[in-house]
Request: fold
Amino acid sequence: DGLTAICYGQFADEKVKVRGEFTACDPYLRFRWNVDGGNWYEVATPAQLWYISYLVNSGKHDINVRLTTDIDLGGISYFPPIGKQYYPVGPTMCFSGVFDGQFHVINNLRIEMDDAGAETGLFGRLNGATIQNVGIVNATLKNSNALRAGVLAACAVGSTINNCFTAGEINMEECICSFERRNGDGLVGLSSSGSVISNSYTTYGAVPDGVNLLESSVQNSYWAEDVTNMAPTGELCYRLNGNQQNILWYQTIEEDAYPIFDSTHKQVYAIGEIKCDGTVLSDDEVIDGKSERGGY
Reply:
């Protein structure tokens, strides 16, 4: 069953089985907590992110978490989804707090489950949660009998997702959702009950699939052919930055395959005639009786 790691300070009375991934009493399991008086758990290591999953799935649903650096999960063979919901019966441990990536990226997420009826993703189920400013690059999800699956979240109920992306090599071929008999979605498997997904994208599939958008909305978010067509030119990056007053997304054209949060890369500008929605006219569009060429 692996080693028992004992955490410190705020978690001095708690223990967690980590299945041999980390050394017992690993100092990297120490947290900075209650930072700036905001009750934030600051996460800087794979071990700490693993422990956040343990906390939520043990009943601490409404904690607030923020990343302080990029996290590479490449050495973690087993990462349990943060928040759980089982169908038709079983425990419900939804995440209902705030997860702020602070414009960092989680790399090489790998989730392999054999739990029938479980929801599979970095977050299993969100309920009243806010997930913002985080990217996931390279992900493999496996569960032959999943209820739902999504790289960022399998299910979002009454939740807000803003400034998020999933990209790189995404593999869900072995993640079969029992309800829809399909592989799952690149960002959110099911969005319902007033959830809002905004300023986000995935290079894989839908975000979420239109069939699974129930009483919720998707705003300025993109997937599938839209991303394939717009990412190389910079159009996707430009659109994600909205009115261009607060630049959060960057892309060095012909170097970055998709928009990222790294401000050392280039800001994308539009050239040519600008339409009311902030996009440029394409080659075949006409304004004032003449054709205008636009680009990014």
Summary: The longest strand covers residues 130-146. The radius of gyration is 20 Å.
